[in-house]
From TrEMBL:
Identification of the protein by name: Amidase
UniProt cross-references to Pfam families, sorted A to Z: Amidase
SUPFAM superfamilies xref list: Amidase signature (AS) enzymes (SSF75304)
PANTHER family the record matches: AMIDASE-RELATED-RELATED (PTHR46072), GENERAL AMIDASE-C (PTHR46072:SF5)
UniProt KW Hydrolase keyword: yes
GO molecular function: hydrolase activity
Keyword Cytoplasm: no
Residue stretches making up the Amidase domain: 28-451
Highest taxon listed in the record's lineage: Bacteria
Sorted UniProt keywords: Hydrolase
Length: 476
């Protein structure tokens, strides 16, 4: 591998080489920046290049290594940060024109944790307005394009992060997920991502002027998007380091105790009122067979109360959004975003007043039933979406567009309401009439056992291969 090809390394491979002194952090960082300069103009995934400060940090890390200083586990790994999270001295725009000048006074915990581990931030990535679409486009920065082609949305809301990682811009992309925002773009781009469980990764934005609503606090988590499953288990312990600014963070060890083999995996193809596309069915079969061959015991199951939990959770979230953010969305959101929210409210009628309080109380019932279910099945293999990923702006095409892009994603936002960890991993590359489309599946885990879900994703990846290799061959 030449110095020009260093951008192809995984996070673990990069850290292994920089820690061993085989390659300098500056060389790795320059390679990532060169790749960004080469492919980002066509993708618009990174909306703020941090090339100069990244190279300055890289040289400082190289000097630190030469002096025998402390080297973190992510030493020299190039990463990106989503523009809805505070990074000192940079605007936390959240894709909104009115927030263009909201300069962060300090880093969010997740940024500090990555920097303390030795990572190098090379850029900040795009998100839709208010980070509340399954597609990534906004009036401030424009559209992020999927590196597989313009026939597929880049997903959202962490669309910039996923498109960047898969195109080779940084080994890791930070994202966050309140209803699917690290899993939608992973599915769109063929990346692998982790939505940690509630309490795993500390979160807070020093720039915020008020606390978020309780559902936003309990459904939103900070996660990662990567090209290789092993990078999630490699990097997430650093992301999950404690920070006193999040008083509800739970500082448990990342890896739990080994389970007796074979680990039982519940398996379902249930998509409720939505048709299961043959390509998604094939991807689920491939994932199931990969797990069986890897030594897991896979059993068909009927998970409890999934649809009810999903719809209750999303209607409650819409109620909280309408009450606490409705005025800002109307005032600062584009006509496109407001039309989409009108359709969200139509398809997910917001709970209000006592009904909202009852919905919040019901969350414990749903979570309890799933906790009991996961005692028997520590992992559950599920669809993520019932159909291949949709085209750009599908969610702006009225009722049917919102129904396909978001309404069908019951397996996504249910996991946020339940607070459970979920990994999204590619299991197939479908060659459809418009072009290639990655097909991802989801692995849900017991609370605090993200590591088990990632291990299972790695077993699927071992069968399927990393989709980035096919993508890079196509990109040239």
């Amino acid at each position: 591998m030449t110095k020009m090809d260093l951008w192809k390394l995984t996070a673990r491979e990069t850290a292994d080489r920089t820690l061993a002194g085989d390659v300098s952090v500056e060389a790795v960082t320059q390679a990532a920046i060169d790749r960004m300069d080469a492919v980002n103009p066509a993708l618009n995934a990174v909306v703020e290049s941090l090339a100069d400060e990244a190279l300055e940090r890289a040289r400082a890390l190289d000097r630190q290594r030469a002096a025998g200083g402390r080297l973190g586990p992510l030493f020299g790994v190039p990463v990106t940060i989503k523009v809805n999270v505070d990074q000192k001295g940079h605007a936390t725009t959240n894709g909104v024109e009115a927030l263009r000048n909201l300069i962060a006074p300090a880093n969010a915990p997740v940024v500090d944790n990555l920097l303390n581990a030795g990572a190098v931030v090379i850029g900040r990535t795009n998100t839709p307005e208010f980070s509340f679409r399954a597609d990534t486009d906004n009036p401030l920065y424009g559209r992020t394009h999927n590196p597989w082609g313009d026939h597929i949305s880049a997903g959202g809301s962490s669309g910039g992060a996923a498109a960047a990682v898969m195109a080779g811009i940084g080994a890791l992309g930070h994202g966050n997920d309140i209803g699917g925002s690290v899993r939608f773009p992973a599915a769109a781009n063929g990346a692998v991502s982790i939505k940690p469980g509630l309490g795993r990764v500390p979160a807070w934005n020093p720039s915020q002027s008020a606390e978020r609503g309780m559902l936003a606090q309990s459904m939103s988590v900070q996660g990662l998007i990567a090209r290789a499953a092993e990078d999630l288990n490699f990097a997430m312990p650093s992301m999950a380091a404690p920070d006193p600014r999040d008083p509800f963070h739970v500082p448990l060890p990342w890896r739990g105790a080994p389970l007796d083999a074979p680990i039982k995996v519940g398996f379902t193809k249930e998509t409720f009122e939505f048709d299961l596309h043959p390509e998604v069915s094939r991807a689920l079969d491939i994932a199931r067979d990969a797990l069986v061959d890897a030594g897991y015991e896979v059993v068909e199951v009927d998970p409890p109360l999934l649809r009810e939990a999903a719809l209750t959770g999303y209607r409650a979230l819409m109620g909280e959004m309408q009450a606490l953010m409705g005025e800002d969305l109307r005032k600062y959101g584009s006509p496109t975003l407001n039309a989409i929210f009108d359709e969200y409210y139509a398809q997910f009628p917001p709970y209000e007043g006592a009904d909202l309080l009852r919905a919040l109380a019901e969350r414990s019932r749903f979570a309890r039933e799933w906790s009991l279910f996961l005692e028997g099945y520590p992992l559950v293999l599920t669809p993520f979406l019932p159909q291949p990923f949709f085209r750009p702006d599908r969610d702006a095409e009225g009722a049917e567009g919102v129904r396909e892009a978001l309404g069908s994603a019951l397996w996504s936002y249910s996991m946020n309401f339940l607070g459970l960890p979920a990994v999204c991993v590619p299991a197939r590359l479908a060659e459809l009439s418009d072009g290639p489309v990655p097909i991802n599946v989801q692995i849900v885990a017991r609370r605090w056992r993200e590591d088990l879900a990632i291990d299972a994703a790695a077993a699927i990846e071992a069968r399927v291969g990393r989709l980035c290799d096919s993508l890079w061959a196509r990109m040239g």
